Amino acid sequence: MAISTLLVANRGEIAVRILRSARSAGLRTVLAVSEADQDSMAAGLADAVAVVGPAPAQKSYLNAEALVDAAREHGCDAVHPGYGFLSENAAFARRVQEAGLTWVGPSPEVIDLMGHKTRALEAAIAAGVPVLAGSNGPLEGDDDAVLALAREVGYPLVIKASAGGGGRGIRLVRAEEDLLRTVDTARSEAGASFGDTTVYLERFVERARHVEVQVLGDGETFLHLGDRDCSLQRRSQKIVEEAPAPDLPDAVRERMRDSAVDLARLCRYTGVGTVEYLYDPVRHEAAFIEMNTRLQVEHPVTEFVTGVDLVAEQLRIASTGRTQLRQEDITFTGHSVECRINAEDPERNFLPSPGTISRLDWPEGEHYRVDSGVRAGDTVAPYYDSLLAKLIVHAEDRGTAVQRMGAALAATHIEGVRTTVPLLQRLVLDPVFAAVEHHTTWIETELLGGPPSGGSTP
Amino acid sequence: MAEIQSPLPGVFYRRPSPDKDPFVQDGDRVEAGQVIGLIEVMKQFSEVQTESAGTLEGFRIDDGDMVHPGDVIAVVAES
C-alpha cells in the first residue's frame, strides 16, 4: 500500500537516518518520542512529533499500544521500527498490520521464524546455508544420546538457547565431564531468561570472525548487497564494521552470498535483512549464526560500497511491494569502515557517561559520513543505549580506508561526555586489525587483557 | 546514621529483576558490602552497596525513580 505519512518508532541516530531518507522519498514524517526526547535532533527533523510516554523505554519506545495509537492519531499509514526496541517483535509487527498500517519490514511470520534459533537453523539447512556440526535443531534425547552427539562433534562446543540472540544464552563446554551439567544449567537459564527451555549444541570455533551478508527481497526478487565484517566486538557488541569482509577466500564469499539469498528466497523475505555467519579462519569455513530481520546499525558501510540507500529501498518495498534492483545492477566499489561512538569511558571499564555535550566537531570531506543523533549542547540521557553517532569512511582500498578512519577520529572532538573515540583510535591503528588477525574476543582477551567477561560465555 | 549515595546518574531499582523480591526491606539488618539495589544507566546495571553495617532505616528513592550522583538512596542506622 502506497505510503504517504511514516511513523518513525525509534530515536537517536537511526531515527535521524530514517527521517532523512523518508523526506527524500517525499514522505511526511512523524517521530514517536519519549518525554526525554522532545527536543532531540531527530525531533527537529520530523514534520510532527508524537509523545508516546515517559523517558524509560518500557513506557515509551517499547509501548506497542502507545506507538500504534500515535500512528493513528497523526494520520500515519506506515511504521518504521529502526533497529532495537520493537524492530524484531513479531507481535508488534502484527499489531501494526491489524491497525491497517504498513509495517516497514518482513512479515511477522518471518520475524518469528528467525527469532527462534533452532527453527531458523532448520530453515538455513533447508536453504543450503552452511552450518556448524552440532544438533542441527533442538538438543533432544537422553544423556547417552547427548554425550554421543557431543563426542561426534568434538570439544570445545557451545550450548545455545533457541530463544537467545545477540550473544545472550550461550555456554561454552570444554570437557565431557562438564557437558550434562552445563546442558541442564543452560536449559534452566533459557527458561528463566526467555521462557523457552529449548537449547541446541554446536562446535565451538576459537578466534572466529563475524561476517554477514546484506540481503534484500520483495517476496519475488531476492538479492544480496555484499558482505561485511564485524569482528571487532566487546561483550558481543560490535564496535567497528567494514565492507567488504577482508581476506575471505572467493569460494567462501560466494557460498555465503548465494546461500544468504537462498535463505531469503526460502522464507519469501520482504525488505532488508542480514544473514550472519561465523568464519573460521583456520578451516576457511563460514557457518550460519542467525538472521536479523531488520535494518542494522552497520548498514552504512554497505551503502558506501554499493551506492544503494537501504532505507529508501525498505520504504519502496513496503510502499509498492516491489524492488527495482536486480543482482546484476549491484556493483561494489572500494572499501568502507564504520566506527561506533558510544558515550562510555574506556578508562573506567566502559562505564556509561551521560551528560551534556559541550563540544562536538566532526571531520568534513566527501569520503566521510557521520550518522549522528546528537548536536553540541544536547543532553545525553541515561535511559537509552550509549550509541551517540557512527563515523563512516570510504576509500579505494582497505588500507586507505583504515588510514582515513584514523584521520577522521583524530579530527573528531567530543567534550562534556566521555566517549569511546580514544579506544577506536587504538583499534584502527593496531597492526593486528591491519593484518586481519583480529577476532570476536580479541579486544577483551588480548587487546585489553584479562579473561573474557562472564567466564562461561565464549 | 549513614547515607547510601548514588555514585551514578540513572534509574534506581530495588529488585534484581521485575519478578523478584527486593534486595532488602526497611528494618532489615544489612552488612557492609551488601547489595541494596541496582542503577541502570544506558542499559548497563551497576550494584549499589552499603558501606555500613546496621539496620536499613529506609529508602529515600522509590523503585524505578531517577537518581543523580550524590542523591541519597537509603539511610542505614549503624550498629
From TrEMBL, chain A:
Q: What function is annotated for this protein?
A: This protein is a component of the acetyl coenzyme A carboxylase complex; first, biotin carboxylase catalyzes the carboxylation of the carrier protein and then the transcarboxylase transfers the carboxyl group to form malonyl-CoA.
Q: Do you know which Pfam families this protein is assigned to?
A: Biotin_carb_C, Biotin_carb_N, CPSase_L_D2
EC numbers for this chain: 6.3.4.14
Q: Name one GO molecular function term.
A: ATP binding
UniProt keyword list? ATP-binding, Ligase, Nucleotide-binding
Q: For the Biotin carboxylation domain, which residue ranges apply? A: 2-448
Task: Indicate the enzyme's highest-level EC class.
Answer: ligase
Q: Supply the name of the protein.
A: biotin carboxylase
Q: Does the keyword Cytoplasm apply?
A: no
Entries under InterPro entries matching the protein? ACC_Biotin_Carboxylase (IPR051602), ATP-grasp (IPR011761), BC-like_N (IPR005481), Biotin_carboxylation_dom (IPR011764), Biotin_COase_C (IPR005482), CPAse_ATP-bd (IPR005479), PreATP-grasp_dom_sf (IPR016185), Rudment_hybrid_motif (IPR011054)
Q: Catalyzes what?
A: N(6)-biotinyl-L-lysyl-[protein] + hydrogencarbonate + ATP = N(6)-carboxybiotinyl-L-lysyl-[protein] + ADP + phosphate + H(+)
What organism does the record attribute this protein to?
Answer: Kocuria turfanensis
Nucleotide-binding among keywords: yes
Location of the ATP-grasp domain: 123-319
UniProtKB/TrEMBL annotation, chain B:
Q: Does the keyword Lipid metabolism apply?
A: yes
GO CC, sorted alphabetically, is: acetyl-CoA carboxylase complex
Which Gene Ontology terms describe the biological processes this protein takes part in? fatty acid biosynthetic process
- Which residue windows does the record flag with biased composition (Basic and acidic residues)? 16-25
GO MF, one term, reads:
acetyl-CoA carboxylase activity
Query: What pathway, per the record?
Result: Lipid metabolism; fatty acid biosynthesis
InterPro entries noted in UniProt = AcCoA_biotinCC (IPR001249), Biotin_Carboxyl_Carrier/Decarb (IPR050709), Biotin_lipoyl (IPR000089), Single_hybrid_motif (IPR011053)
Task: Give every Lipoyl-binding domain span.
Answer: 1-77
Q: Where in this protein does the record put region Disordered?
A: 1-25
Q: What domain of life?
A: Bacteria
PROSITE patterns, per this entry? BIOTINYL_LIPOYL (PS50968)
Describe the task this protein carries out.
This protein is a component of the acetyl coenzyme A carboxylase complex; first, biotin carboxylase catalyzes the carboxylation of the carrier protein and then the transcarboxylase transfers the carboxyl group to form malonyl-CoA.
Entry protein name: Biotin carboxyl carrier protein of acetyl-CoA carboxylase
